[in-house]
Amino acid sequence: MLQDKTAIVTGAGTGIGRAIARTLHAHGARVVLAGRRRDRLDATAALLGDRTRVVPTDVTVPDQVQALAAAAAEFGQGRIDILVNNAGVMRFAPFQQADEAHWQTLMDVNCWGPRRLMTAVLPAMRGGGGSIVNIASIAGEHAFPGAAAYGAAKRALRHVSQVLAMEEAAHGIRVNVICPGVVEDTDLLDGAVPAEKQAGFLTTFAGLHPLGRNGKPDDVADAVLFFASPLSRWITGAVLPLDGGRHLATNRPKLD
Ligand SMILES: NC(=O)c1ccc[n+]([C@@H]2O[C@H](COP(=O)([O-])OP(=O)(O)OC[C@H]3O[C@@H](n4cnc5c(N)ncnc54)[C@H](OP(=O)(O)O)[C@@H]3O)[C@@H](O)[C@H]2O)c1
Q1: Residue 219 C-alpha to ligand 1 middle, in angstroms?
Q2: Which pTM does this prediction carry?
């Protein structure tokens, strides 16, 4: 489905990003792997084989984001077809303890980073049916104590995506958003939950998803494939809850 397409995946060295890169690659795309740690990106590239390019990038550094877009356009012989803004960080802090640095980091990586990269790739994406897929979060859709900054950044990313979907529709570019619930087998909790509490966190959350489990990176990757491919050719500005039904859940106790 993605033969001769060129894709950028950020956060491609770990977790969900690695699964997305593998899935897009398996469907024929050339994949540019971005993130800060080269060793993690190299490990993903080794899994995939040819049709990959590693471009170490910190999405908070504008010059590096520009260099990423330039490298991807060169790899795609002038075109970038798919951008997946997946890189992100999660930190929790009660509102009164969330300082400027906390807010700055969460907004910069989770919202300004994607915004920078979208701006940088648009010239190489227009006129050819490009697709941008932004990974937001259920935390941007609902109010979770301790997640004001993380949730605000993800909610802002969702909004920016929808405005861009309107602006770029005339250029044939689609922009869609995925909001995962809790996904395991990633490194995201490392920045937010002490190591000894992560297993308990995941067990608790598994029970809160109506489908009875946490998500896996491939659950997200398959939805990204849908948005990246012609299967979703008449969909733009969509916000997909990808959370085993958690967005439907209430706190109703089990009565029987
Ligand atoms: N896991 C979940 O439960 C869950 C739920 C909802 C949404 N999400 C979202 O899904 C996305 C992927 O998360 P994940 O669960 O796969 O966690 P993860 O394994 O920690 O992946 C995050 C990736 O982002 C990269 N990254 C972080 N800061 C960066 C920066 N400044 N510049 C470039 N890359 C950066 C990291 O690589 P480097 O450190 O090498 O840069 C890492 O590969 C995130 O946007 C996250 O918010 C996850």
Answers
A1: 15
A2: 0.98
